């Protein structure tokens, strides 16, 4: 939670101000401090979207531009921005990860009951709000919070300027609480745009007036196509509800298994009808049609839509070198069965083996991950290259999982793989576990190793 705290002490000294107040003002102004503004537009924009109810805060020290005012310590702690007369102004850097409608509250003081301002975009001069009628608080340091109403703000960096339209009021803080997030995605994939390869997922009415994919469980197949207008790096968001605190999924390419985003712990929502937006990942996409999939690692959650936002036209890099191979996509096996409902491999016995082909796009050191479930903690296996007989890793025991379908990964952190098709073989030495998916991700390329 961010929250905007700006502190402005203004003592009216315009031509109409009474003599006593001018003396007051000169007296206070002796101890005023000249502000040291931060650079407007320099605050980082969080990658975490705001949720309804979140409050945006900027401290008075983060004032980024001003005219005519000074700082001073306030009676409620921190620093005030003061001496703002009619025509004076103060600006703040607003860095929003979410565009939306915000409820603005403002904490002010006025010994005389004067004071008015407008809130504008310093860059575009767009007027967000005109406010008059600052309450009479019987003192320059007696503060009162007032409801300033709703203001629509865009995502990204905005320099918000408070123009004082009338002398005789002090401003201590302003809060902007998100009331409604605006949907501002460059590209969206809605529930109805998915091919559902598994009977388990149905379309249902969502509390937000659209359709959603209802109760997604591991093994469900959710296919979609992405045709992006422009090649480049994109952020991928998902709108989900997850009251059971168990969801996790990856966004993968259907043919190559490339992982474009993965979220291992979805935030919990209070019910199936409460929705939250999560950042699933950042990835490079070419401007062509991609056959994509939501690969469900762990159910059950609901999904309303995916939203993609263009970041820049940077090309792909090694961060994108992350792939999944579902257990059921083996090239050869002895003695194993695919569970038709959940898409995993089960009924594993000693002596069983399963072979896969990893399509390695660039040589390097990889982390190999095997997603397994073992409610009794049973099972052991080793991973070898069937051509070279190199042993990549051995798992003598497996972690205990909550159920047969609560997947956890066991990892081999340091496997050297050469570009091309690399065969790997899982040799089961003890049964009693389920196996769901292999992930392999470039840890470092050879150049970085040297
Ligand atoms: C200004 O600072 C001086 C010295 O610290 C102090 O004595 C005086 O009370 C201050 N005036 C106000 C109005 O705070
Ligand atoms: C805005 O906040 C004020 C003060 O907390 C509250 O009284 C008002 O109901 C809120 N308005 C909206 C639309 O949430
Ligand atoms: C802003 O929120 C903070 C934290 O809840 C609160 O202390 C402060 O009084 C609020 N200010 C305004 C102007 O609402
Ligand atoms: C995606 O495109 C393929 C052709 O490349 C098509 O067969 C498939 O039906 C499309 N799927 C969806 C969900 O539109
Ligand atoms: C990774 O393996 C190589 C040999 O295959 C070894 O030289 C290196 O020390 C290992 N690094 C780590 C972090 O285990």
From TrEMBL:
Gene3D superfamilies: Galactose-binding domain-like (2.60.120.260). The keyword NADP does not apply. InterPro entries: CBM6, Galactose-bd-like_sf. The keyword Signal applies. GO terms for molecular function: carbohydrate binding. Residues 56-177, 183-309, 323-441 form the CBM6 domain. Pfam families: CBM_6. Residues 1-20 form the signal peptide. Keywords: Signal. This is CBM6 domain-containing protein. It comes from Fistulifera solaris.
